[in-house]
Automatic annotation (TrEMBL):
GO annotation terms (biological process): carbohydrate metabolic process
Signal peptide from the UniProt entry: 1-20
Keyword line: Hydrolase, Signal
UniProt xrefs under Pfam families: Glyco_hydro_17 (PF00332)
Top-level lineage group: Eukaryota
GO molecular function: hydrolase activity, hydrolyzing O-glycosyl compounds
Family, per entry: Belongs to the glycosyl hydrolase 17 family.
Organism taxonomic ancestry: Eukaryota, Sar, Alveolata, Colpodellida, Vitrellaceae
Protein name per UniProt: Glucan endo-1,3-beta-D-glucosidase
């Protein structure tokens, strides 16, 4: 749904050679997307908080949230990572959409090495280890397809950081368009898988499926199914995921469902506190997120892949935007708390009660340079923090359910947020 960022995986019968990295996708976790942090030209406005040499500063700044004109505070990569570490995040989905092979002034591999090194440093003293899910941008796929050395170089980098990299995500929603999936993702996955096998890479490979691969999700969730033409493409890949005990991922954005039909969906259902619930297939739904999740699991299940661990790669609600409608820090906070409740309280969804649901929030920091795909534009304001690293609301600790979380979810039926 949002900008495509990411990396991915492959086809054919493929069993990863060893699975010594404990990728626990069976227990739920709340992680965070971290990346796309290239807001300003390097060094611009950075007048304080800099302890590195100019060269280090330049390199660090490349992936850091840099200063804006009116707020010349500099958040380096280490400082940005410290912010999310202190909030209890241990799972980081790291991506950098703009890390094109041709456009960067230092190579994507150097940049990847830099951010992974910083993660190791910052999380060294944390009570739990960091778990990085490294997402390769869609722009990498054709390069990997065309030149296996590139796959080998990426894998060599990951192996240098194999204590923190649990999963490599090839691309973001590469199945959005069947031609791109066929021409770029599947061949790139084949090349990468082979290189990973040769190198005995421990990290799991996966990708993020797009909602376009499922159909018939409304008005009945039970009728949801994979689009047959996509299923044909996906089947060998999903079979690989099962063989290697790897998860499959999707993104869930109630905001887009709501903004397309605000009156029909209604804010309470979009944010997770509808009262009375909507009855679908004899089950009561209070949160459209649950319905979106259940439709995906139903479709995977019908195709014979309901047993794959399903991880939500992105979920978000904007806090601002041009011509804002129903977007502010309060509605954003309610969204994250409703999702957090499902993840931490093991309540699952109406169709799959008790099911454990790992989720990555989208995204750690606002990105004022992000391209907006939604209308009105909101893509820039999906961060839990401003570009300067200031939390937009009381995030509390993502490791536990707190009073602040409880309070933000409206209890009163038909309260002032309802439309
Ligand atoms: C971000 O946007 C600003 C303002 O449009 C522009 O000057 C700057 O070059 C952009 N930075 C990047 C890294 O694209
Ligand atoms: C940056 O430096 C200023 C002044 O030295 C300090 O007040 C501020 O807390 C620092 N910011 C961060 C994020 O460390
Ligand atoms: C393939 O990529 C490697 C770097 O990984 C590069 O040295 C080599 O020139 C590339 N080969 C071609 C044919 O582009
Ligand atoms: C759904 O909720 C309504 C109350 O709004 C209740 O009457 C009904 O029994 C519930 N249905 C199920 C299947 O739980
Ligand atoms: C946030 O948006 C909701 C829905 O439009 C509105 O009811 C609420 O007053 C807004 N809150 C703030 C602080 O603007
Ligand atoms: C909330 O409002 C709807 C629509 O006006 C109404 O049907 C419903 O009974 C109300 N719910 C409660 C719990 O008052």
């Amino acid at each position: 749904m949002t900008a495509s960022h990411g990396w991915m995986l492959s086809l054919g019968v493929f069993v990863l050679p060893s699975l010594s990295v404990p990728v626990d996708v069976s227990s739920p976790f709340l992680g965070i997307n971290y990346g796309d942090l290239m807001a300003k030209s390097i060094g611009e406005g950075c007048t304080q908080n800099i302890t590195q040499t100019p060269d280090e500063q330049t390199r660090d700044g490349f992936l850091a949230r840099l200063a804006t004109d009116d707020a010349p505070a500099c958040l380096t990569t280490s400082m940005a990572l410290t912010v999310v570490k202190e909030e209890g995040f241990r799972h980081l989905k790291v991506f950098e959409e703009k890390l094109g092979l041709d456009e960067s002034f230092f190579s994507p591999l150097d940049a990847g090495d830099l951010v992974l090194t910083r993660v190791s440093e910052v999380f060294r003293d944390a009570d739990d280890a960091a778990h990085v899910w490294l997402q390769l941008p869609n722009g990498f796929l054709k390069h990997i397809r065309d030149n296996s050395s590139y796959a080998h170089d990426i894998i060599a980098l990951i192996k240098e950081h194999d204590d923190i990299v649990d999963v490599v995500i090839l691309g973001n929603e590469p199945f959005l368009f069947p031609e791109a999936a066929k021409d770029e993702f599947l061949p790139a996955y084949g090349v990468f898988k082979e290189a990973a096998s040769q190198a005995q890479l421990d990290a799991h490979l996966t990708t993020v499926l797009a909602n376009s691969v499922i159909q018939n999700t409304f008005p009945s969730i039970d009728a949801a199914e994979m689009v047959p033409s996509y299923l044909e493409l996906l089947e060998p890949f999903l079979t690989d995921l099962r063989a290697s005990s790897s998860p499959v991922m999707v993104n869930i954005f109630p905001w887009f469902a709501f903004s397309g039909a605000p009156v029909e969906v209604g804010l309470p259902y979009a944010l997770g506190y509808r009262d009375p619930p909507i009855e679908v297939d004899g089950r009561n739904y209070t949160f459209i997120w649950d319905a979106q999740y259940d439709a995906v699991v139903t479709a995977l299940d019908k195709a014979g892949f309901g047993d794959l661990p399903l991880v939500i790669g992105e979920t978000s609600w904007p806090s601002d935007g041009d011509n804002p409608v129903y977007v502010n820090k309060t509605t954003a906070h309610i969204h994250y708390a409703s999702v957090k409740k499902r993840v931490l309280m093991d309540i699952g969804t109406p169709k799959y009660p008790g099911r454990q649901i790992p989720v990555f929030y989208f995204i750690a920091f606002d990105r004022m340079n992000a391209t907006s795909y939604g209308f009105p534009p909101v893509e820039q304001y999906l961060g839990l923090h401003s570009e300067e690293g200031v939390a937009k609301f009381d995030i509390g600790s993502v490791a536990e359910w707190g009073e602040g979380d409880e309070q933000v979810i409206p209890h009163m039926p038909n309260n002032s947020l309802a439309i």
